[in-house]
Design goal:
Strand 2 and strand 3 form a beta hairpin. This protein has about 850 residues and is α/β, with parallel strands linked by helices. The chain has a 9-stranded mixed sheet with strand order 1-13-12-11-20-17-14-16-15, sandwiched between helices. Strands 6-7-5-8-9-4-10 form a 7-stranded parallel sheet. It has 6 domains: about 90 residues; about 180 residues, Rossmann fold; about 200 residues, P-loop containing nucleotide triphosphate hydrolases (Rossmann fold), CATH 3.40.50; about 70 residues, no CATH class; about 160 residues, no CATH class; about 60 residues, no CATH class. It contains 33 helices and 20 strands. Helix 27 packs across helix 28 and helix 28 runs antiparallel to helix 29. This is DEAD/DEAH box helicase. InterPro entries: DEAD/DEAH_box_helicase_dom, Hel308_SKI2-like, Helicase_ATP-bd, Helicase_C-like, P-loop_NTPase. It comes from Microbulbifer taiwanensis. GO terms for molecular function: helicase activity. Keywords: ATP-binding, Helicase, Hydrolase, Nucleotide-binding.
Length: about 850
């Protein structure tokens, strides 16, 4: 057997040989690395020994060696195939073993001794889960992590799990969801995702799972409208963002119920304002709904037990960390060679060490325009056959890279699905929106502000191979399921800040598709010039809540917010949300025992100053209203309350049905009140734009019409303005100003208006107020369209379908499903993409 130093040298040699095989055809390299039979045998034996270890590092290295040997020998060595089959069984990586058998065993049957075959069978038995206790044939093989995860979900009231992006959490959650629903009736399971971009994906996955298990009576909702307890029947599953969860638990339209709470991408609790909103939503849910089951799922964090401590769930809770991924990643470092523009220096970062691989000659110049460089590299790596995600720091950059790839892509032939999607984009978004031309060249861009049906359409084209390249923004970091063989990254940022190590690991985890590849590749362009070395460091990162981060220095941001000069500065949304939470906690606990959790030797004096500043704030609103609107400043809520209380007639400040005369003027008047009370400092033109877009959005004007009118208006003023930039800007205003900020403000406005009405003895008159916060988020005030969107149908399709129904006022959304089941969907005049959305939804 080789010494330790020799085996390390052999492993590096194998790494280099493996990476050389990852190069695209257009990369010309003189480097040749060969392994002889003796070296292959030594590596095989070492991998086998490591597979018996209990440490994650050894098991991961065992997997790396075995799978790299498989790829190096190209399936032509029976001994390697047999050994890898045993090793993958031993470490419980059954997806990897399935890939091995599909790819190599048909032409080269493995020769495994009876003893080792029994070992494999024993491991299979240990990891087999029976989907149906009455049917032994309905079973599935789970990885070690998946089996532990599923067992823990069944046994624990509270569970926090940290695992790699590709560990197969979603598959286990599907199994557990079915198991929960079958165990008892009347359950209400809430599944929380960090962004709206994820809602439709998770809803589709949940519906598909339930349908496959014959659970078609389970209600699945994506809108925060509580279902009456007597109408739930078998179960209800809600898929929400944290904001929609807040709307749900504070709903005035029904009595919300939660029996289980799933927090996916729970590490988002550390990210700014929305992290604080997430924490508030979880806090309120756990306090209002008693002993509910709760799961926190996060990628690669060091301290998953933090969530159980934060929410006081340690007494009936368990946590664990999984570091082993069933798919691994190659971190490939790409740098330029001085004086040789077509040369690229390639290294890999493996086990904390940078290993040179080769200097290659590319078919393009790695100089000049950064967009062209990245586009050329992305196109070369894909080579028309392999899936590539090019990460961009913002939507504009994503579009530019995609458009440049499209210009360079001369041989791509689009299929019927890509052609149909391009036609949809031109007709329903804008004729000059560049996504259509990009898709016809095999590439697309993808960012969070895009309309949901367009975004999911891009995802589907990528997943089914109709396009090979996506230029994507940070939506990947929030859990959008878009794995690819390759990811290309250059100097990644999170907003205005350099990307953190945790975010980089989450992004890199998308490289490598389970059951399709043993390894994924992350191509890091010029890493030595990045603003942070996020590509290097520990795999596990410690998490801390956003509110704790704000309070780390004693709350200076809150003090600044409350100072007399604060109105001169740009609003700090994170500080506002932190102030709202701390003030609410202070009202519940006037003795301030909670504040000690933020105290340290360094911040003690500053913390006392922050507490004194908060104590000076006078608010007379009920604590319930403050709790329901914790992401807003309490003093701003008080401003609104005092303004409404001072009005002689609040009837004149009540939102009108959008279709009635005077509704637009009333909405604009309320908008002005909100902007004043919440100190939303807007220029008159920008406020006019928000108001104009908001009203048309609420009225249900198609997005294509809204965008076309905006483009026409901007070009009438600035003829040479970029159509694409105008569209991105309009979508940004809709998402951030209308669907996020105005939704929060109108929700608070309606609640405080009702409270003032009650104080004046007018509760009956004001019992129902037009729910503009709902209209603004979903983009319609039509009851039929809202019910359709509650089912998870996109706004596009809901607007096409709203005229097809004549239901009474109080019909549940599921009645729309039944009615659509009897319709001839193909005969309805609407885009094929909308028809497909409905057909996929129907039982």
């Amino acid at each position: 057997m080789h010494s330790e130093s020799n085996i390390d040298t052999l492993i590096r040699k194998l790494d280099t040989a493996s990476i050389l095989r990852q190069f695209p055809e257009c990369f010309i390299s003189d480097t040749v690395v060969s392994l002889d039979d003796k070296e292959i045998q030594s590596l095989t034996g070492y991998s086998s020994i490591l597979s018996l270890s209990d440490t994650a590092e050894d098991v991961s290295l065992s997997y790396e060696i075995a799978t790299r040997l498989l790829e190096y020998t190209e399936g032509n060595c029976n001994k390697v195939i047999s050994a890898a089959d045993i090793i993958l069984s031993r470490i419980g990586n059954f997806p990897g073993r399935s890939l091995l058998r599909d790819r190599y065993l048909e032409s080269n049957p493995a020769t495994i001794s009876a003893q080792l075959r029994l070992e494999c069978l024993a491991r299979e038995a240990e990891n087999t889960f029976h989907l149906d206790e009455k049917d032994d044939k309905r079973s599935t093989l789970l990885t070690d992590f998946q089996y532990k995860f599923l067992t823990s979900l069944n046994e624990e009231g509270s569970l926090s799990v940290s695992a790699p992006t590709s560990a197969g959490k979603s598959f286990v959650l599907n199994i557990d969801l079915v198991r929960k629903i079958k165990s008892s009736t009347g359950q209400c399971i809430v599944y929380v995702v960090p962004t709206r971009a994820l809602i439709s994906e998770v809803a589709h996955r949940v519906r598909t799972t339930l349908r496959s298990e014959g659970l078609e009576d389970v209600i699945v909702r994506t809108a925060p409208f509580p279902i009456a307890k007597d109408k739930i029947g078998q179960a209800a599953v809600y898929i929400f963002t944290q904001e929609r969860l807040m709307s749900f638990i504070n709903s005035q339209e029904g009595e919300p119920i939660i029996t289980s709470l799933i927090i996916d991408e729970a590490h988002e609790i550390q990210n700014g304002k929305r992290g604080i909103i997430l924490q508030n939503a979880i806090d309120i849910s756990l306090s209002r709904f008693g002993d509910i089951k709760v799961l926190f799922a996060s990628p690669l964090i060091k301290n998953p037990g933090y969530f159980l401590n934060l929410f006081s769930r340690t007494s009936n809770g368990k946590y664990f960390v999984e570091q082993i991924s069933p798919v691994s990643q190659n971190l490939i470092l790409v740098s330029e060679v001085k004086g040789k523009p077509k040369k690229l220096d390639i290294s890999i970062l493996t086990r904390g060490e940078i290993v040179p691989v080769s200097t290659i000659e590319a078919a393009f110049k790695f100089r000049g325009n950064a967009t062209s460089q990245r586009a050329n590299l992305t196109l070369s790596i894909s080579n028309g056959t392999e899936s590539v995600i090019s990460f961009s720091n913002n939507p504009s950059q994503a579009e530019k890279v995609a458009c440049r790839v499209a210009e360079l892509s001369t041989e791509f032939e689009p299929n019927d699905e890509a052609i149909s999607f391009a036609e949809f984009v031109r007709r329903e978004i804008h004729p000059d929106y560049p996504l259509a031309d990009c898709v016809l060249k095999g590439v697309a861009f993808h960012y969070g502000n895009m309309p949901s049906l367009v975004r999911s359409g891009v995802e589907n084209l990528f997943k089914n191979g109709s396009i090979k390249i996506i230029c994507c923004t940070s939506t990947l970091l929030q859990g959008v399921n878009l794995p690819a063989k390759h990811i290309v990254i250059e100097n990644p940022m999170s907003g205005e800040s350099p990307m953190t190590r945790a975010d980089f690991l989450n992004l890199a985890g998308r490289a490598g598709r389970l059951l399709k590849e043993f390894h994924g590749n992350i191509w890091c362009i010029r890493p030595s010039e990045w603003n942070s070395e996020c590509y290097n460091g520990d795999r596990l990162q410690e998490i801390n809540s956003a509110i704790s981060t704000v309070m780390e220095d004693g709350g200076l941001a809150i003090q600044k917010l409350l100072s007399a000069e604060s109105s001169e500065h740009t609003p700090n949304d994170e500080a506002e949300a932190a102030f709202g939470k701390i003030f609410h906690d202070y009202l519940i606990d006037p003795q301030l025992s909670f504040i000690e959790g933020y105290r340290s030797e360094e911040n003690s004096a500053t913390l006392d100053e922050t507490v004194n500043a908060i104590k000076q704030v006078e608010v007379s609103l009920p604590i319930q209203i403050l709790e329901n609107n914790q992401s807003l400043r309490p003093d701003h809520l008080q401003n609104l309350f005092e303004y409404l209380s001072s009005q002689e007639s609040i009837s004149e400040l009540t939102p009108l049905s959008p279709y009635t005369q005077g509704a637009k003027a009333r909405m604009e008047e309320i908008f002005l009140v909100l902007a004043t009370c919440f100190e939303w400092n807007l220029s008159d033109p920008y406020r006019g734009l928000i108001s104009y877009l908001a009203y048309r959005w609420v009225w249900g004007i198609p997005i294509g019409k809204i965008l076309a009118d905006r483009v026409e208006y901007v070009q009438s003023i600035t003829p040479n303005s970029s159509i694409s930039s105008t569209i991105r800007g309009c979508l940004s205003v809709l998402e951030e100003a209308v669907r996020f900020r105005l939704v929060k403000y109108f929700s608070a406005y309606i609640e405080i208006l009702k409270f003032v009405a009650i104080e004046r003895g007018l509760e009956e008159e004001f019992e129902t107020i037009e729910p503009y916060h709902i209209y603004l988020e979903f983009g319609s005030c039509n009851r039929h369209a809202l019910n359709l969107m509650a089912l998870g149908i996109s706004r596009f399709t809901a607007l096409y379908m709203e005229s097809k129904f004549d239901f009474d006022q109080n019909v549940e959304a599921e009645e729309y499903l039944k009615r659509m089941s009897d319709m001839n969907i193909d005969a309805i005049k609407m885009p094929p993409l909308c028809k497909k959305e409905i057909i996929d939804l129907l039982p």
